[in-house]
Amino acid sequence: MKISVWAAFVIFIFFFLLLLTIQAREHDHHTQQRERISGSAGDVLEDDPVGRLKVFVYELPSKYNKKILQKDPRCLTHMFAAEIFMHRFLMSSPVRTLNPEEADWFYTPVYTTCDLTPNGLPLPFKSPRMMRSAIQLISSNWPYWNRTEGADHFFVTPHDFGACFHYQEEKAIERGILPLLQRATLVQTFGQQNHVCLKQGSITIPPYAPPQKMQAHLIPPDIPRSIFVYFRGLFYDVGNDPEGGYYARGARAAVWENFKDNPLFDISTEHPTTYYEDMQRAVFCLCPLGWAPWSPRLVEGVIFGCIPVIIADDIVLPFADAIPWEDIGVFVAEKDVPNLDTILTSIPPEVVLRKQRLLANPSMKQAMLFPQPAQPGDAFHQILNGLARKLPHDRNVYLTPGEKTLNWTAGPVADLKPW
Ligand SMILES: *[C@@H]1O[C@H](CO)[C@@H](O)[C@H](O)[C@H]1NC(C)=O
Ligand SMILES: *[C@@H]1O[C@H](CO)[C@@H](O)[C@H](O)[C@H]1NC(C)=O
């Protein structure tokens, strides 16, 4: 009897200690997760946009949005799907107002990127006419466009070169941003400093990456990172650019030529089924600039805690005023690619650990995703926070009655044809 009480006591103490240890661990884990992250706009990632702005959503005929999606449901899964999910998000968001008189921002739900080739690549050829048609409609049916000529309107234009609406860079530059959108705020994935397709005040967003699919591949966080550098993707665009100088500005070709036989580099064009798991086993993931395909890797790196090595001179990264990319990633100049091995091996372990710790912060990961339904701090909320930080609008955005600054006939003649 006495012995069994003793035994029960010992067992209790044992469990008590065990519990304490687990709690201490959880506590460590928790404080680590709660580490605040701040970008140039301050500690804003966890801001709640509700109450800080009101958005009026124009009601457009379904041919500008729903009908287009019906024709091709693939638009819901490609990397530019944010254009559709942002519309759905706003419809049920508490920042939406049904009274345009009290709105800070106006949103036009037009799916200009949902026109896909059989291979699933978006064709932007009809986008300028479609956008123009939508603007014509809102400006004749409501008084708000004419009041500012778009300065308090935002548009989601996630295509390769945003509202330049072309997938070839020279053509995109030649076209420039659609003249009617000159005063509007653009929400786009494209981000490159000093480029005609990125104007001041635009909000750069991550590309859409399917959250459930990535979640399904999560492996336990204590699996050691046994791969030093990981990359899967094209190095040469053999069809369009056999010399390798234009595609990704030669950065990918340089990675391949210099490191294909280096045992620290796990790089290949073959896309294994263990791709997501492998990223979780890697210390560094390369994000060499491509036309557009580099950016899903950036999202994957953040989600999987694989330090993104960004090889893209003058890039403007998603939500760069809220996310401290310099602290999380490694930036390597395109010309320094041949020294990539030395650059990465000379980063002190404590710096690597700090970046990994920051990447483990759930608010970082949340900001990269467009989950269904939306969650606090996700990419939808970051877009709203970005719009809220631009308020109040400068008084000079309001035109005097009859004042016009936009030229409705500017731009390529073909864009003027009705849609
Ligand atoms: C806005 O201005 C255009 C001319 O630029 C005009 O055709 C249109 O009717 C105006 N809209 C409203 C609602 O008055
Ligand atoms: C508007 O653009 C067209 C085409 O570029 C040009 O011919 C016209 O002169 C411009 N109008 C104004 C008022 O600048």
UniProtKB/TrEMBL annotation:
<keyword id="KW-0732">Signal</keyword>
<keyword id="KW-0333">Golgi apparatus</keyword>
<keyword id="KW-0808">Transferase</keyword>
<comment type="similarity">
    <text>Belongs to the glycosyltransferase 47 family.</text>
</comment>
<dbReference type="Pfam" id="PF03016">
    <property type="entry name" value="Exostosin_GT47"/>
</dbReference>
<feature type="signal peptide">
    <location>
        <begin position="1"/>
        <end position="24"/>
    </location>
</feature>
<dbReference type="GO" id="GO:0010417">
    <property type="term" value="P:glucuronoxylan biosynthetic process"/>
</dbReference>
<dbReference type="GO" id="GO:0000139">
    <property type="term" value="C:Golgi membrane"/>
</dbReference>
<keyword id="KW-0328">Glycosyltransferase</keyword>
<dbReference type="GO" id="GO:0047517">
    <property type="term" value="F:1,4-beta-D-xylan synthase activity"/>
</dbReference>
<dbReference type="GO" id="GO:0009834">
    <property type="term" value="P:plant-type secondary cell wall biogenesis"/>
</dbReference>
<dbReference type="InterPro" id="IPR004263">
    <property type="entry name" value="Exostosin"/>
</dbReference>
<feature type="domain" description="Exostosin GT47">
    <location>
        <begin position="52"/>
        <end position="347"/>
    </location>
</feature>
<keyword id="KW-0812">Transmembrane</keyword>
<keyword id="KW-0735">Signal-anchor</keyword>
<dbReference type="GO" id="GO:0080116">
    <property type="term" value="F:glucuronoxylan glucuronosyltransferase activity"/>
</dbReference>
<protein>
    <recommendedName>
        <fullName>Exostosin GT47 domain-containing protein</fullName>
    </recommendedName>
</protein>
<dbReference type="InterPro" id="IPR040911">
    <property type="entry name" value="Exostosin_GT47"/>
</dbReference>
